[in-house]
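queue> holo job accepted (zinc ion)
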Amino acid sequence: MDRDGVINEIVCFPELGVLDSPLNPDQFNLLPRVPKAIKNLNGLGLKVIIVSNQPVIAKGKTTKALFKKIREKMTKQLQTKGAFIDGEYYCFHHPQAKLEEYRVLCGCRKPAPGLLLEAAKDFDLDLTKCYMVGDSLIDVEAGKKVGCKTILIGKMKCDLCKLMDENGFMPDWIVNDLCSASKIIAKEERKND
Ligand SMILES: [Mg+2]
Ligand SMILES: [Zn+2]
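queue> job finished
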């Protein structure tokens, strides 16, 4: 699954007129019902893995140290509710990165499927049996490229449907939040039993 907009709120920076990833732990807030959703997925015996583009360090908006603190806050908040993330994969690159070390055209920035492939290798997963959950087109696209079933989170996202249809990246399901996604996954998994 993607992280921002799926697990945690996307942060609004009104002074810049943009929405962005949290840049420090104070800006990191779990979305409603997320611990419950992840707990559901843990209970199904599935691996819960984050695959997320995070160019915020490359762009000089935050630091490695703050990024680590955000991850720690996430883990702790989930753990206290009995929810567990099995793996976290991040792409820190950006083609126009301010910091040179991150300025590359990589194979892991979604919609490229690099992070998904890496996770599949590490966890020995058959990607055609995996679900990619995200709140952006690029999540659906990355998932589709490697044969995952795809779930798009978004309320008003069907303005995107035409575009997705044209590009051949229609999600298999569209839901309101991760908890609804976890229910779909539970239902699908029961079918496979
Ligand atoms: Mg997102
Ligand atoms: Zn990358």
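queue> The domain at 11-192 is CATH 3.40.50.1000 (Rossmann fold).
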